Amino acid sequence: MVKTLGNRTGFAWSLMILCAMNSWALGGTDGLPSIPTAGVLPHSAYQLHGELAWQRVPESGEYSSAFPWVSGVRLGLFDRAEFGVEVGSKISVSGKMQFLQEQDWFPSLSFGARQIFNSQEAHFYSVPDSLRTSYAGELYMVASKKFFGVTSLNGGMSVVPGLDSGMAELFWGVSQGLFGGLELVYDGLQRNDDLHHALGLSWSFRDFLRISVGAKEVDRFFYQNEQFGFYMRDRENRSPDGYSAPGIWTALSFTGFMSSGSQPSTPERLIIFEKRLDSQSKNTEKYGARVDRLELQIQEMRKGSADSVTIKELIAERMLQDLVKGLTDETWDPRQGRRLQDSLLSLGEVSNRILVRTVQRESSSLEYRLLGLRIMGSSQSPRFVAELAEVLSSAEVALVREAVLALAKIGTPEALDLLRVFRPKANPEMQKNIDEILKSVIPATPIAPAVLTPAPPPVPVPTSSGPAL
What we know:
- By secondary structure, the chain is an alpha+beta fold.
- It has helices spanning 2-20, 120-124, 161-164, 266-301, 311-327, 334-345, 349-360, 366-379, 385-391, 397-410, 413-422, 428-439; strands at residues 45-59, 62-66, 69-77, 81-87, 91-100, 108-116, 138-147, 151-159, 169-177, 182-191, 194-205, 209-216, 223-224, 227-228, 247-257.
């Protein structure tokens, strides 16, 4: 009677915790239900967590439903360690130390111990009380790496001295981001000379609330006794525990800080973000260098053929096509065009070659050539002055007008001298525009000792007749 009342009281207490907070009692802090990860909580952060499962296991010769639960709390220490206390049928403690933090291509690496004094895993899988002590005292090493910000891979090995006589067993896990904070989570582990798999969906809200639901021993739902079907219990070997029984688990966690003063300040968060940005910039440079090497290999394989097209050139041409299509669309957002133009110019010399080739090629359509001239002017790069000089001799008035505006936007002495030379050859309307441009240029005044002259006003440039980017 007392034992039954205690079980009911503990179960009700667990449900209250689950409704209020909860998370991955057996696994890590990122939603994997059964295995640890290399991640640790920030300093002074806490995580209240719990997990509830359902499975059918044999009891007194008959199958009955079991609802094991585990809950507890974790504390982050110095951004390098975690300490936790868990409660299932009994109390256990856990600890983890992170020795390497994830950086570039290197994963984070942690060593830890869990199930100390008692095994929450054994309780969660409904192992009989007489056998649970052999599952206690797990030691593990785990590495974790995140790719592209949405895919997390985890793997490691663990030793349970009382269960496997010191032999190491493997575990692994994958977390794949989908959308809106939703992730697909999977993990697997070796235990009792067999492989065990869990699959589920996890949803997080602003890094402090996480909810998850999934299936344990997911393969045994559909395949037993060398036959496919749909099974709700272990029909193959009538194992006395839940390691072979298909089941369902659900979890919830709440993460916060001990006090508002312990949270990182705005300057500290800026430093963290700047470090992340610097790391991402380095990775981008590495990727760019690899693309450049691939382009050289492609050109080498094609023996420098004039028809060879590099990867970046294909990207630049596609961007140029999108810009032309966008400018003819009434719903086109000019800010979108500006972002796309900036992305095109960020390709460097590759985009310069594409623009020059598009403008100078007479077979290109007029809208492409005009757009190329506008982008040249927007770049304000002196690199295009020589090419723009060739366009001034074109018989197409629209092209000449755009070339004049581009030279005015570039505004270097060479560009302005070119406009002065071209003025006598221009038509009256264009001569008027060139005069307005040249009159607005204030000659540089020598700087007297200890006296600074004010900067000249910007050169007003007549607007193009074409759509703005």
